[in-house]
Protein: Redoxin domain-containing protein
Amino acid sequence: MAFRMPLRRIALARPNVPAVRAFHATPRAFVKVGDELPKIELLEESASNKVNLAEEFQVANGYIIGVPGAFTGTCSSQHLPSYINHPRLKEAGQIFVVAVNDPFVMKAWHAQLDPAEQTGIRFLSDPTAEFVKALDLHWEGGVAIFGGPRSKRFALKIEDGKVAKTHIEPDDTGANVSMAEKVLS
Structure:
């Protein structure tokens, strides 16, 4: 007669955590009219020059322009030039361009697009995407293209430190609803 080992059930250790679903029926909670800006420091021209847009927009109204990346085709040839060349630019108030890039890339891009610095547009770096994530204006599709999360293409009108109007591209990177002709008119 052969020796038989009794069968034992081995319980695998499983944390008592509810399952997380990847699908949900509720739409994403993009920034909306009436929201305050997050108090997050962005960088301008260097790692030591910090800018907090929540504080900047307590002083004057204006716009935040979000772009997927500095030196990218649509951003450099269409989106930003639509603001730089717009006849009502000077009436728009403060304008900040935000991209998930390092401050040195943003400084070089600013120098290329506005070499005489006549527009008054300021170029800010959101190197970890913390600012655009706080607004829920990031997309993960940038991993394959850009190596990490990126900003959606958007324009936000800011009045009295709060979002007064949103212009968010529905496909994340297109250039339609956030162009200066539609935003500044």
Remarks:
- The chain has one domain: 35-184.
- Residues 35-184 form a domain with the Glutaredoxin fold (CATH 3.40.30.10).
